[in-house]
Amino acid sequence: QVQLVESGGGSVQAGGSLRLSCKASESTRSFYSMAWFREAPCKEREGVASMFDHGDSITYADSVKGRFTISQDNFSNTIYLQIRSLKPEDTGMYYCAAEAPVAGTLVADLYKYWGQGTQVTVSS
Question: Once rounded to an integer, what is the mean pLDDT over residues 65-79?
Answer without folding.
Answer: 93
